[in-house]
Amino acid sequence: MHPGVLIVKNLKYAFLTSTLLGLILCASVASTQTARWSEQKANAWYAQQPWLVGSNYVPKSAINQLEMWQEATFNPTEIDQEFAWAEAMGMNTMRVFLHDLLWQQDAVGFQKRMDQFLTISSRHHIRPLLVLFDSCWDPLPHLGLQHPPVPGVHNSGWVQSPGATALADPTLYPRLKAYVQGVIGAFANDDRILGWDLWNEPDNTNAGSYPKTELKEKDKRDRVTALLPQVFEWAREKKPTQPLTSGVWGDDTSSDRSKLGETAQIQLRESDIITFHNYSWPEYFKSEVAWLKKYNRPVICTEYMARPAGSTFDTVLPVARQERVGAINWGFVAGKTQTYLPWESWQHPYILNEPPVWFHEVLRPDGAPYRQAEVDLIRQLTANK
Questions:
Q1: Strands 244-245, 274-277: parallel, antiparallel or unpaired by DSSP?
Q2: For residue range 178-194, what is the model confidence (pLDDT) as tens digits?
Q3: Is the peptide bond before 355 cis (omega within 30 degrees of 0)?
C-alpha cells in the first residue's frame, strides 16, 4: 500500500473516531442535562429552603384555574391582598394551578400575567409551586365565561387539564408539549418559583362526580401512565433550575405499600422531590412520611387538612415541622370554589346551612380566620423557620 494512501486512511479513521466520540459526548451531556436530579442535588436544594408552609391557592373570586388566569377575570389586586394575609401568618409558599388552554388561547398574555403574579408573590416572600396538569373534577374545560358555583357543592366548577378530549386524542399531544415547554421554558431560571408539580392526581377517575363525561376508568389510567413519563421528559428538555414532581395520593392509609399502582411508581421514579397528599389522621400522616423518607429525597405534603376527616392544622402541622416536611393545605380563602364544604356535598348539597365544621380553607372572604387558634398556630410554628 502506498504510504500516502495509509496516511489518508488513518486521517479518515481519526476523523470518524473523533466525530463519533463527539456525538457520544454530546449525547452524554444532553442526558445529564435532562436527567432526574440526584439524591444529593435534591437534598442540597431542600437544605437551602425554609420550612415550607402554605395553601393550595385560588383567589376567592375564581371558581377554577381558568377564571383565575384569563385576562377578563385576572385580579392582581385581590391576589395581592390575599397574599398579604398569607405572609402575615408566616406562609412562604402557595400551590397554584395553571391550565393548557390558557397557553393555547394567548401564550404571550398568559406569560405576562404569570410574571405579574410572580412579582406579587415575591413581594410577599411567597414562592409558589406551579401545577401544570390536573385530572380532578370537570373533564370538559372550556375557555371564556365560567358557570357560577352550584349552590351548596364543593368545587363545583373546577376543571381538568388536559380535559378528556385532549387526553383521548394523541394528535393533540404536540399542543400539550408546546404548553409544558412554553411555560417551563419561559420561567426555567426564575428563582421566584419554588418548583413544578407536573400533574395533580393523574389517575384520579372522578368516581361519582362526572360519570357521563369522564373517560372510562381503565382508558384514563392507561392514557395517563403512557403520557406522564413524556410530560417529565418534555419538562426536563427545558432544563429548569427548579425541581419537578408529581404527588402520590391514593395510598396514605395503606398497610401494604409494596403494591403501588403504576402511576405512583412513575411519580416516585421520575420526581426530583417527593410530594404526596394525605387527608387522614395524623398517625397515618406520620406513617406515610416515614415510608416516603426511605426514598432519600425531600418530602413535601402538597395536600392535607380536611377537618372532619381527622386531618387538622392542630394535629398534622406539628408533625410536619418535627419531620421537616413541607405542608401545603387545601384552600386558603373561602370563595367561589366552596371547598369549605365537604366532598360529600356532591351527594348532599349544603343549601340551607353551612356544615357544622368547615372542611377546608383558613380564612373567611374578608380575611378573618375561620378559627383564630389555627392562624395563631401557623404563625407560631413558622416563626424563624
A1: unpaired
A2: 999 999 999 999 999 99
A3: no
For 59, residues 6+ apart whose C-beta sits below 8 A from its C-beta are 68, 75, 78, 79, 82, 333, 335
* Length reported for the chain: 385
**Cell numbers given for 108:** 404571550
- Give me the residue spans of the domains in the chain: 52-382
**Cα–Cα distance for residue pair 366/369, rounded to 1 Å:** 9
- Identify whether the C-beta of residue 198 lies closer than 8 Å to the C-beta of residue 132: yes
Q: How many CB atoms are located within 10 Å of the residue 238 CB?
A: 18
Average pLDDT, the chain: 91
Per-residue pLDDT of 341-381, as tens digits, reads 999 999 999 999 999 999 999 999 999 999 999 999 999 99
| 52-382 is classed CATH 3.40.50.300 | no
Q: Tell me the whole-structure pTM to 2 decimals.
A: 0.91
Residue 208: predicted pLDDT: 80
- Best CA proximity match to 183, nearest among 127, 118, 267: 118
CA-based max dimension of the chain: 100
Question: Residue 114: is it exposed, middle or buried by C-beta count within 10 angstroms (0-12/13-18/19+)?
Answer: buried
Q: Assign residue 278 a region: left if phi > 0, alpha if psi is -120 to 50, beta otherwise?
A: beta
